[in-house]
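Re: that chain you flagged

S.,

Sorry for the slow reply, it's been a week of failed gels. I finally had a moment to sit down with the sequence you sent. For the record, here it is as I used it:
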Amino acid sequence: MKILLGIPGGIAAYKAADLARLLTKRGHTVRCVLTEAGSRFITPLTLASLTGEPCFGANPDMNEWRPSPVIEHIELARWGDLVAIVPATADSLGKTANGLANDLLSTILLATTAPVLWAPAMNTAMWEHPAVQANVARLKSFGHAMVEPVEGILACGEEGAGKLADIERIADAMRALGSVRQPSLMGKRVLVTAGPTREDLDPVRILTNRSTGSMGIEIARSLRDVGAIVHLVLGGDLAAPYGIETLRARTAAQMMSACAELWPRMDGCIAAAAVADQRPETIAGEKVKKGDGPENLVLVRTPDILLNLGAQKREGQWLLGFAAESEHHIDHAHGKLMKKKLDAVFVNDISNGKAFGDQENTLTPVVAQGPQAALGPLPKDRLAQALVGWWAERLGLQIENQK
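Prediction finished late last night. Pasting the structure tokens below so you have them in one place:
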């Protein structure tokens, strides 16, 4: 993706250098546009060195409005697949919201037809000022996207909302805006479950599993990227991805409740959560002291979320599950497929600790006709893209066959 990164004059401008480096490392082509105020915080040489591309705007080597056979703000506006302003200042937000343009970046923002992303950073009082919020609302009405600032310690020493969002989140937003849509999933409402559930033994101890939720989160991102409307029910501690409605669930019962409420409105579901199969029969109200507790733990079954969703599946809905197996992988997956009325099961081989954490993974899709070609081994972000692509192609064929 070709990204035009606008950098106005805010103290968080130094973080734009990290963002430019991150985007370049991920294979994007990044060109930076500095305002005059931005150049007081970070130099054109720094940005050009990190991106391998010229830095435009307030650059002593490439002056604004220099004699040129091209009209620079139009050329750059047409060049970028995405324009991002990081950090967005109150001044830059106000200019574009009101159609003002007196430097290279502001004229690009009026001329571009590409998606525009703002990542504001400023003092809390400034961010909360009615004029700034009105400008933000107006930019959103133009179709611009916003990665809103977070709470934290600000450069002025005060604490509150106004701190620039994490650069990983800003990069995730760029990915969401710049991705290619899939017709078979575009606009479809998809429920995704991810992460472990946790069942309390007492106020300190829990029963859980080794899942982190990273695979389910990457699936949610990949669905978002192809144009689906994703609703994520998330266990564990990982941060929710950008632009995805997320409900947190701690226990299997909470996850079941959230899924049951959402499922009637969904077109499909990918259930990647690692739900605990059992919970303690009783939960101690106080921490159980060493030597005081029973040596035998009585467990009872938790609700089977996939079984319940499969039983309520209406015509036209689709339901995909996962099977983490250490032996007889295909047989167990096929049994799960039939019992729970699934459209496909993705089999994880978890023998010897495989499939958990950040390592590469392989998934084998199993459908009623039998196992399909394996996906992977791939890192989880690319594996999620492969999974979503595989299902989008299969859905597309189903749609064609129904015509």
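What I noticed first: The mean pLDDT is 91.

Talk soon,
D.
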